[in-house]
Design goal:
It is a single chain. 40% of the residues lie in helices and 10% in strands. The protein has 324 residues and is of the alpha+beta class. Among the domains are: 144 residues, Roll (FAS1 domain), CATH 2.30.180; 52 residues, no CATH class. Strands 2-1-6-5-4-3 form a six-stranded mixed sheet. Helix 8 packs antiparallel against helix 9 and helix 9 packs antiparallel against helix 10. The radius of gyration is 60 Å and the shape is rod-shaped. It holds the Pfam family Fasciclin. Belongs to the fasciclin-like AGP family. It is found in: Cell membrane.
């Protein structure tokens, strides 16, 4: 009887447990939406939506369709070429430390720079390149004006072939100054500038500076330094676009004028009376032969006009021959 009572109580407790759990589950979903609905109006009242005015769209300018890039207008060209200031940056850079094996080789520098083959050939054929090497070897300083191949092409055909060996040497040395001059120091030179050619009288060279331009005048050719080929503390090589022609070789010489012909004057004619009287006098004279000789010598004398009286001499000789 006791066991049945315990079993009945356990079933009854289980029944109440399940019924309570079902009640809780049934009421919990309904309360959640109600609570949410109750809180929703409060939240809406707390923060009412702010109406903002819609901004009109900003009208943008329509960009024109892309066209081809316009090329800048070219500057009007003139008959005279535009000369640019010389570049201070050397075409051939000097080594940071000069090798102690030997002096700077000018021919190799010009070969490396390019466009100087004609001037290199002149340096070697005249042996001036050896002179330059010897001068640099004893710590002398030099400045060289190197004409380009284009400069030599402007000369009259066969100009170099008409020069003697000595003239070619003078021509090359005319392009060399015995001191090293930087671009900034050309304005300190006094004209005429001394070159390694014979003298400044026959080989004058004038150098003037106008702004950034270094002008060179020989009396025949005017040009400017167009760039720096090489520069160190001992040697400076500058590029020029014309060959420096010295007056001592290329100065125009006046043409010799042919002597004007001397007009020939006719000898004076002697009258017949004077001729006959002279003949009679000579025949009556005991020394007719001597008189005839004297008369002949007088006839061969010079008249007023400086001409020989040939006619009178012939007459005198005939009269002397008749007497004999």
């Amino acid at each position: 009887m006791m066991k049945q009572g315990l079993i009945f109580l356990s079933f009854l407790s289980l029944f109440f447990y399940h019924s309570i759990a079902a009640t809780i589950v049934a009421h919990s979903p309904a309360q959640a939406p109600a609570k949410a609905e109750a809180e929703a109006p409060v939240a809406a009242k707390a923060e009412p939506p702010v109406a903002t005015k819609a901004e009109p769209p900003v009208a943008t300018k329509a960009e024109p369709p892309a066209t081809k890039a316009e090329t800048p207008a070219k500057a009007p060209t003139s008959s005279h070429p535009v000369v640019e200031p010389p570049s201070e940056v050397p075409l051939v850079q000097a080594p940071p430390h000069k090798a102690l094996a030997g002096p700077t080789d000018v021919s190799k520098i010009l070969e490396k720079a390019g466009s100087f083959s004609v001037f290199i050939r002149l340096l070697k054929s005249t042996s001036v390149s050896i002179q330059i090497e010897n001068q640099l070897n004893v710590s002398n300083t030099l400045t060289i004006f190197a004409p380009t191949n284009g400069a030599f092409s402007t000369l009259k055909a066969g100009t170099l072939n008409t020069l003697s060996t000595e003239q070619k040497v003078q021509l090359v040395q005319y392009h060399i100054l015995p001191t090293m001059v930087s671009l900034q120091n050309f304005q300190t030179l006094s004209n005429p500038v001394r070159t390694q050619a014979s003298n400044t009288n026959d080989y004058p060279l004038n150098v003037t500076v106008e702004g950034n331009y270094v002008n060179i005048s020989t009396g025949i050719v005017n040009t400017t330094i167009s760039g720096t080929v090489y520069e160190d503390n001992q040697l400076a090589i500058y590029k020029v676009d014309k060959v420096l022609l010295p007056l001592g070789i290329f100065a125009p010489r006046p043409k010799s004028l042919a002597p004007s012909p001397t007009p020939l004057l006719k000898p004076k004619k002697e009258t017949n009376s004077s001729t006959s009287s002279s003949s009679s006098d000579d025949s009556d004279s005991p020394v007719g032969g001597a008189a005839a000789e004297v008369h002949a010598s007088d006839a061969l004398g010079v008249n007023k006009n400086g001409l020989v009286n040939i006619g009178v001499a012939v007459v005198s000789v005939i009269s002397m021959w008749v007497q004999f």
